[in-house]
Amino acid sequence: MTASKLLLRGQSACGGPGTSVSYLLALAILLLAATAVSAQDAQADKKLTDLTIVIDADVVYGHKYGLALTYDALQPNTDRNRAGVLFMVSGGWVSRWGPPERAIERFRHLLETGYTVFLVRHGSSPRFVVPECVNDVRRAVRHVRSSAKRFDIDPNRLGVFGGSTGGHLALMLGTTGQDANPKAKDPLQRYSSRVTAVVAFFPPTDLSKYLDPKLGFLERFPALKFDPKQSPDVSPLLQVTPDDAPALMIHGDKDKLVPLFHSQTIHKALGEKKVPSELMVIEGAAHGFNPADGKRANAATLKWFNRYLLKPAAAPAKKK
């Protein structure tokens, strides 16, 4: 176990300045727990670090229907590598809010390496459907890129990752990145939504496999209740082109909800277009990983991002 310090800035969950008393109390309890490192833990972990994390909570990147679209930024206070990775907070295309400090352990492998991690929330099912979720996360990428100076990151070194529907959204960003429009009325449209690298855990890549009403997925996942004619537009498998971002898929071979062929087929499609791609198959894993498999997946994720994000990158190229 490693000790962490937290520095919070920005807005509270309700959108006003500062934080509530209950929030501060909860944070104090968390800090006590996070810093309670026993002698035994210290002996076992020779690389024990005192990591200070700066959190910008509930950064607003857009509005719709009177609601705010937000993300949290987690940053190591020192030794940043100036690369950013956006994590798609999504399960069943539902994007839930949670105290950002609780995410530190989940992303420690990235934070300790100097990455800035953005926890991106999109408009959730059942109110919003998949094409709207895709548009939301594109806007989030544009906002992060427009805020590069604020977060001290290189706008041309942005990665994206997620699991399940979060993996689907990550691959959508990797395969359908849009160019900047300098003449756009919306200031954010003047920034590209392209990303430099993608990691997707057990992602659905062809949504047509879920749209038959007889299969029951439409009731289980209301975000799929969109015009089936839009399916190709939101299926990353059908959007692969040579200018896509390098992608790593990590998938269990016992996954019944999102079978392995989803990652196998997009891995093949990317290879045919000469896009760097890898597929890591975890034997015996279903839709989700146990702690040991999760540790392997995290190590592979870090290796992939290090390969593509820890070097100077050119500005996003325009589609031909």
List the helices and strands and how they pair.
Layout: E1 3-10, H1 21-34, H2 39-44, E2 50-64, E3 67-76, E4 84-89, H3 108-111, E5 116-121, H4 130-146, H5 148-151, E6 158-163, H6 165-175, E7 197-201, H7 217-220, E8 247-252, H8 261-272, E9 277-282, H9 291-309
Parallel strand pairs: 1-2, 4-5, 4-6, 6-7, 7-8, 8-9
Antiparallel strand pairs: 2-3, 3-5
How would you portray this structure in words?
The protein has 320 residues and is α/β, with parallel strands linked by helices. The protein has one domain (52-309): Alpha/Beta hydrolase fold, catalytic domain (Rossmann fold), CATH 3.40.50. Helices cover 28% and strands 21% of the residues. It has nine helices and nine strands. The protein has a nine-stranded mixed sheet with strand order 1-2-3-5-4-6-7-8-9, sandwiched between helices. The longest helix has 19 residues, at 291-309.
How far is it from the N-terminal to the C-terminal residue, by CA? 49 Å
Q: How many helix segments?
A: 9
Main sheet strand line-up: 1-2-3-5-4-6-7-8-9
User: Would you tell me which CATH topology applies?
Assistant: Rossmann fold
- Give me the Rg, rounded: 19 Å
Counting structural domains, the number is 1
What's the level 1 CATH class?
Alpha Beta
The tally of beta strands, per DSSP, is 9
Question: Strand-residue fraction?
Answer: 15-25%
CATH architecture name: 3-Layer(aba) Sandwich
The average pLDDT is 87
- Helical proportion? 25-40%
Low-confidence segments, given as residue ranges, are 11-49
The SS-based structural class is alpha/beta
The H-level CATH homologous superfamily, spelled out, is Alpha/Beta hydrolase fold, catalytic domain
The general outline is: globular
Helix-strand topology string = EHHEEEHEHHEHEHEHEH
Major beta-sheet overview: 9 strands, mixed
